[in-house]
Amino acid sequence: MSLSSPPRPPPSTKLNTADLPTLTTYPTTTFSEKTSALRLVADSIAQQRQSASFALITHPYPLSALILLLGILSQYLDYATFATTAGGVVMILLLGVRMVTGGYISLAETINFAWLEGSPAALRGGKKGSGHGRSPSGGSAASGNVDPAPLATKPNSSNNPNHNAPGRRSRNNSNSSTRSGGGGGGGGGNSSGGDTKDVENIVIVSKWGADEIIGALVLRLSRKDQKAVVRAWTVKLRYRGKGVGRGLLEEGVRVACAERGCTRVEFDRGHANSHKVLPEAFNKGFERRERRAKGMLTEVLKEQGVGR
User: Fold this and answer.
1) What is the pLDDT of residue 123?
2) How many CA atoms does the CB half-sphere of 232 hold within 13 Å?
């Protein structure tokens, strides 16, 4: 008689997907979700400050100048004095970088419902690539987190007619998607010098689970021109590279073309993340991102059979 216990069956590795949160992408009409979407856009602009700072510090010109300066100082100072002076020089350099790239914080503070309903030029406060303006409602975007105060004022109800509840498109965790409803809606808006009946602003969000807005796309549609422009497109940092951004573009093209009859969809030349505060030589990284974004939009348009 064997005293050993019978072998145990291997543990089940089957995952119960019913308990996992789902990703839904849809046009929103609620004030709270639009506020969360605008805050995401503002945060993405503030985060450009980090990229700009890194590009400035690692660029060959300022880096070579720093090395040359430290090399000259090392010839005339003893070790202890040189170490102290070098630390001071580096600190001054970092403070200068912080000041030079601070314009992105001012740009982030202009993202609110006035920006959503008004002209895209309201964000610039000057020439594209050179100027920036502050929101009259104030706010703070320090450390990339924008104060919600500038967003806390509801848009003018006369410019935002009610729409039917939007359909929602669900995406499971393997990035496959199915459409669970038709229709769509977004808050109407006015364009500077335009007809409010001709222009419509639509905010599309990606929601993870029941509460967390992780992506946003802002469209402006012109019925007269049968054209839609992407004014803002962003995804939370930790969810990037997982197909969320592409899903937003797919839903945006579907809403603009299949539901609203647009024949063209493109990025607005003055979209929220297009403005630069540094000279052109330091913006190569931003230009690469711009090309990738336009390339992805082109792919989505081809997949849905839409001519640009």
Assistant:
1) 43
2) 29
